[in-house]
Write a structure and sequence with these properties.
The chain is an all-alpha fold and about 100 residues long. It is about 75% helix and about 0% strand.
Amino acid sequence: MIHKINVNLVKLIAAIILFICPLDMLYWFYDIVRTLALIGFSFLAYDARKKKKNIETVIFICLAVLFQPILKIHLTKPIWIVIDLVVGVWLIASPFIEERKKK
C-alpha cells in the first residue's frame, strides 16, 4: 500500500496544511497538524531513504521530530509562521527542483 502513495501529493497536502497554520486557528487544529506532519514527514523520510537521498532523509526526520505532538517543541508564533511558510514553499518547490536535476 505504501508504495502506491504519491510522494508529490503528500508534499502538496502537507504544504497546504502548513500554509493554513499562520491563520488564527483553534489550538486543537495545531495538534492535528502536528500529528499529520509527523505521519507525512515520516513517510517522506522513508521514501527518501528508499531512494538513497540521504540529505532529504535527514531533513524529513528533523521535520518529523520538530512537528511531533508528543514532546512538543515550544517556539513563538512568529517563529512557527516562518517555519511553516519556508517548509511549505520547499515542499511545493522540491518536485520541480528534482525534475530540473534530472535534465
